[in-house]
Amino acid sequence: MSAEYQVHGDVAVITMKNPPVNGLGLAVRQGIAEGLEKANRDPAVLAIVITGAGRAFSGGADIREFGTPKSIQEPNLLSLILALENSLKPVVAAIHSVAMGGGLELALGCHYRIAAPGCKVAMPEVKLGLIPGAGGTQRLPRVIGVEAALNMIVSGEPVASELLASLPGQKLFDRLAASNESLMDEAIQMARDKAAIRPLPLVRQLPAKHPQGDAYFQFVRNMVGGMSKNFPAPLKCIDAVETATKKKFDEGMAFERETFLNLMLTPECRALRHVFMAERAASKIADVPEDTAKRSIQSVAVIGAGTMGGGISMNFLNAGIPVTILEMQQEALDRGLATIRKNYEAQVSKGKLKQDKYEQRMSLLKPTLNYSDIGQADLVIEAVFEEMGVKEKVFEQLDQVMKPGAILATNTSTLDVNQIASFTQRPQDVVGLHFFSPANVMKLLEVVRGEKTAKDVLATVMSLAKTIKKTAVVSGVCDGFIGNRMIEQYSRQAGFLLEEGCSPSQVDKAIEKFGFAMGPFRMSDLAGNDIGWAIRKRRYLEKPSMRYSKTADLLCELGRFGQKTGAGWYDYKPGKRDAITSPLVEAMIEKHRQAQGITPRKISDEEIVQRLVFSLVNEAARILEEGIAAKASDIDMVYLTGYGFPLWRGGPMQYADTVGLFNVVQAMKRFSQNPMDDANFWQPAPMLTKLAAEGRTFN
Ligand code: NAI
User: Fold this and answer.
1) Do 698 and 691 touch, CB atoms closer than 8 A?
2) CA of 532 to the centre of ligand 1 (A)
3) What is the model's pLDDT at position 184?
4) Which of the listed residues 384, 388, 526 should we mutate to test ligand 1's pocket, taking the one with most ligand atoms within 8 A of CB?
5) Ligand 1 atom nearest to 336, measured from its CA
6) Pairing relation of β-strands 112-115 and 91-95?
């Protein structure tokens, strides 16, 4: 039983016990129900207190049970809350730390509530594509008012208990305890004081009203509708809360239930739940136990103060970790520092960063030209030019100066991390930390595990990633790691689409309509077309049989490197980022088609999207097969946090699962019949063929 039952004089205390956050799994629900029954049967007990052990009152439903029979097995949350309401003896919820979702709904079913200082209270269901499903939409407006409740339910954001307690007329908390320590004594005393009072107060009997009624709901619908385009749940939150103001309580409950169950079946909800689990799963590495001792990281050194080095440094400064940044020349160092300063100053002027915080962060940054200044750092991250020879010299130096046990990381985006490790006498301490640009903004961090990378190094950097608020995903060593290796196939396919008849803007618009933040051509203009050009020169020299469209090379030969040169796939006005269709580029593509003897055809948006997304999926299946990624959900996290894949589709693998792998393979077979496309390109990865044949999914 995951709830403990104790009697303190004439008050029974039921304590939920399901670490880490007392998720309301079946065993917890059974434990509460039994405790409640016992307390009601025992003539010596006059009142009941319910609370949670450890770090939370309750974090809500146990998401591991979602979609399983356990989640609806009796007592389910709804019937448990009903049992609390129907208790003949008063029940006091003693809330501390965290009360979220089902945990808050449970408290709302109690007769009285007392909260310790500093509680975080939330209805986060909307973040999983749902609405609260155990009375939250009906009871919360009755205790804190319609507007405050709707704000919480639509945003899913936590609110401090003190703030809620200060709302005029609020009935959420009957009392605030003086301290965390005194909470239980006060709750027990409160239960005792209320023991004889009848009738027992029920939240369901309170009114839910808004003075502006229809006008108010119309207003929030307009506002929320605009912000939540691809997510059905936020508008449903409004429907449910509006129902609370217009219908009887039980009718409102029935509406909430039906809406909740319908949302549960939507692809958006499935995607969001998948992402929730995927994010947690990404931080776990199968052969690195969670209790692996970590190395202490109190200081960091960064080699190279260019685009990446500066951004990487900012992550640590933001987290209060001192950084020493090293360059070869004073000029480069000054330039790097000036960029960091400029970035922070922009944040200050936008009001996103306080002046004193900015100064505090800058004071943690120490510039240097000498390796002797970095030897004592616990972690060093190299971000110098992408050339093996340069990296070799840097790592040989690091091997000389860094203290024993320091972690030696490289930010390389394409080079072989095993080879880089071999430049040192301590390959076990070497790891790839592949940040994405802009490194102070992008959430993704690919952790590249070399053949010899030690487990405690991995455990340390995974935990450090959390400190600097990154989503870390482990990748094995290969050209491009997970993300860029997949994007290569996507870019190749985008090139074939141009040759066959698309314009850059048609391709971009189609995939942006699908939900990508930016299409491949706008993206390339932003990143710099010359970067891809350099990579292609190296890559396709090594793999001459790999067919690709030469249009991107032709573009670079015209010096059109993208936004930085004012011209790329699109034209740009000085100082502006708006992509303007370029007649010159269209003529360049047309000339190329003629030279190749290609008659252009009209290509549908659906075909564009499928060819681009399935090219990602096929390469991803190979990446999985080779063990470069440990699980499909890791690949989804890479694409959601580093490549602007639409969140509501859950990532490329989840999307493929939703389409059905059989259908994905059928589409690929169709594409391989197209004489203009590269037939080899569409050879399905063996894993994809196998899963499709067996009717299985990636995730
Ligand atoms: P960058 O050219 O902006 O900066 C490189 C910096 O390293 C320059 O300031 C240069 O003076 C300095 N440097 C060169 N050799 C050095 C040495 N021996 N010792 C000390 N400093 C030295 O290049 P960027 O874009 O910052 O790239 C750095 C690394 O990050 C490369 O390995 C690149 O592949 C990788 N990367 C780049 C991304 C991007 O979008 N720019 C994204 C992810 C990784």
Assistant:
1) yes
2) 16
3) 98
4) 384
5) 9
6) parallel
Nearest ligand 1 atom to the CA of 382 is 29
Which pLDDT score is estimated for 543? 80
Decide: 444 in ligand 1 pocket, CB within 6 A: no
Predicted local distance difference test score (pLDDT) of residue 430: 98
The values of phi and psi at residue 289, to 5°, are: -60, 150
Residue 308 CA to ligand 1 center (angstroms) comes to 6
Separation CA 26–CA 65 (nearest Å): 8
DSSP state of 473: E
pLDDT level of residue 198 (50, 70, 90 thresholds): very high
Rounded to 10 degrees, what is the CA torsion of 523, 524, 525, 529?
170
Mean pLDDT of 319-341: 97
Cα(44) to centroid of ligand 1, in Å?
Answer: 73
Residue 446 pairs with which residues in a beta bridge?
434, 473
Residue among 128, 71, 76, 74 nearest 101 (CA): 128
pLDDT in tens, 170-186: 999 999 999 999 999 99
Terminal alpha carbon distance of the chain: 31
Question: Beta partners for 48?
Answer: 12, 91
Query: DSSP string of 505-526?
Result: HHHHHHHHHHT-SS-HHHHHHH
In this structure, the residue with its CA closest to atom 11 of ligand 1 is 332
Lowest-pLDDT range, 134-138, 147-151, 289-293, 546-550?
546-550
- 394 Cβ below 6 A of ligand 1: yes
- Which of 302, 303, 308 best tests ligand 1's pocket when mutated (most atoms within 8 Å of CB)? 308
Check whether 35 has a pLDDT greater than 80.
yes
pLDDT of residue 539: 80
Q: Which residues have a catalytic role annotated?
A: 105, 125
State in Å: Cα 429 to ligand 1 middle: 21
Instruction: Tell me the C-alpha distance between 464 and 444, whole Å.
Output: 13
Q: Which atom of ligand 1 is nearest to the CA of 394?
A: 18
Residue 387 Cα to ligand 1 middle (Å):
9
Ligand 1 touching residue 307 (CB < 6 A): yes
Pocket lining: 388 vs ligand 1, CB cutoff 6 Å: no
Question: Taking residues 527-536, what's their average pLDDT?
Answer: 89
What would the mean pLDDT of 220-232 be, rounded to a whole number?
A: 94
**Where residue 547 falls among pLDDT bands split at 50, 70, 90?**
confident
pLDDT at 68: 84
Average pLDDT over residues 615-619: 98
Tokens at 339, concatenated: 């960029």
3-state secondary structure of 323: strand
**Is there an atom of ligand 1 within 6 Å of 40 CB?**
no
Question: Tokens standing for 297?
Answer: 């990281």
Q: 3-8 and 11-16: which strand pairing?
A: antiparallel
* Distance of CA 314 from the midpoint of ligand 1 (Å): 15
Query: Is the overall model pTM greater than 0.90, yes or no?
Result: yes
Rounded Cα distance, 195 and 250, in Å: 27
| CA distances for 51 relative to 21, 119, 162, angstroms | 12, 13, 19
Going by CA atoms, what residue is nearest to atom 9 of ligand 1? 306
Atom of ligand 1 nearest to the CA of 305: 9
% of the chain residues with pLDDT over 90: 93
Rg from Cα positions in the chain: 29
- How many residues in total does the chain contain? 699
